[in-house]
Amino acid sequence: MTDAQDTAADSSLRTTGGTPPDDAGSSVAGAPIPLLEPREGIPPVVVDEAALARVIAAFAAGSGPVAVDAERASGYRYGQRAYLVQLRREGAGTALIDPVACPDLSGLGEALAGVEWVLHAATQDLPCLREIGMTPSSLFDTELAGRLAGFPRVGLGAMVEGVLGFVLEKGHSAVDWSTRPLPEPWLRYAALDVELLVDLRDALEKELDRQGKLEWARQEFDAIASAPPAEPRKDPWRRTSGMHKVRRRRQLGVVRELWETRDRIAQKRDVSPGKVLSDTAIVEAALALPPNVHALAGLNGYGHRMGRRQLEQWQAAVDRAKALPDAALPQPGQPVTGPPPPRAWADKDPAAAARLSAARAAVSTLAEQLTMPQENLIAPDTVRRLCWEPPKVVDAETVGTALVGYGARPWQVEQVTPVLVAALSA
């Protein structure tokens, strides 16, 4: 048992019943222990510069990795901004920071420069943390570590229970974190999310080392930490749910116009776009091409709860799309920058289809042997691109070079090159 776990298991960490877990990397003896309260209680939320300065000083003086988490208000607010930031570090305790009241946390980010950040599902939180000035130079992702180590369930609650023997209360994960003031039960939940994150990191590091995968994990973590911010998605309106039903260009134009109108309104009101108008309603109007407000009101999603002014707003968007010249209408599908969809390979290039089938089977078998998901062993898109346009001479050097060009990490190249060479040569 680690020192931190020992502390967590004693009377200063309030739990109900049960016994402390065995060493973090081993199986847990007895029933899991409900984790009900942070060991130092719920810290006050930081809402002013003076309190933030004290937190920065405390965390700069702390030791070891820092656990970091962020809560967003997906489904309630526009965008993916952070509405609460939680941190915990040895010697500093736990801090809860309100990034609405303190929107610039670059000073905290600078204080933690060179410190390893421990996050769960890092790619989800890094964009909103970057917006407020917090970007790690190195990190440990406990969810990704769990995937590489072969855990069947990698949610934070499942990992903490299976590895450390504590049960986290997860009832507030989908609440509206933009609520002010935040209720105490929510703050307790938020503090507990970072309570044992460093302990989980230490246990997973031992398990990855035992399996010979620790260096693989480090390469993955470095890739996440060094990745540039994602580029804005081209034509985001094409991701409207139900788009597969929309075939004609005029209908596509209606989807685009309604989506963009909805997005402007949602951004102005700072609410989730789905609360303004559902994807289902957008597709319904695109398929029906209603001639007037009365016809629009009869469609799903535009019922009696919607006022006349709102109906006119949506009908105006439909009318704008209907008035567009043909040349201004969107084309079906998106520009193809890579291979065609695999379902079309058999007709377009039967040899490529055979290569892909062999490569997928080989990767699947290897992933099972290594006890990890196929997509973590090698990106499916990388396999498709390699099979669609293989090197003219297929050998370990050319395949390895191609994999590197597609962004594969060294450990992935080492593991999959032999099986892909065999599949491409069959």
Briefly summarize what is shown:
The chain is an alpha/beta fold. The chain contains 20 helices and eight strands.
What does this protein structure show overall?
With 426 residues, the chain is of the alpha/beta class. The protein has three domains: 3-226, Nucleotidyltransferase, domain 5 (2-Layer Sandwich); 236-328, HRDC domain (DNA polymerase, domain 1, Orthogonal Bundle); 342-425, DNA polymerase, domain 1 (Orthogonal Bundle), CATH 1.10.150. 49% of the residues lie in helices and 9% in strands. The chain is built from 20 helices and eight strands. It has helices at 3-9, 49-61, 106-111, 122-131, 142-149, 156-164, 184-195, 197-210, 214-226, 249-269, 273-276, 279-288, 293-297, 308-322, 345-348, 350-369, 374-377, 380-388, 396-405, 410-425, and strands at residues 33-35, 45-46, 63-72, 82-90, 93-97, 116-119, 138-141, 166-168. The strands form two sheets. A six-stranded mixed β-sheet has the order 2-5-4-3-6-7, with helices on both faces. A hairpin with a 2-residue loop joins strand 4 and strand 5 (93-97). Helix 16 (350-369) packs across helix 20 (410-425) and helix 19 (396-405) packs across helix 20. The longest helix is centred in the middle third of the chain and has 21 residues, at 249-269. It starts with a helix and ends with a helix. Mean pLDDT is 92; it is low at 1-28.
CATH class of the largest domain: Alpha Beta
Briefly note the structural class of the backbone: alpha/beta
| Alpha carbon gap, first and last residue | 50 Å
CATH architecture call of the largest domain: 2-Layer Sandwich
Protein name: Ribonuclease D
Region (Disordered): 1-32
Biased composition (Polar residues): 1-18
Domain HRDC: 248-328
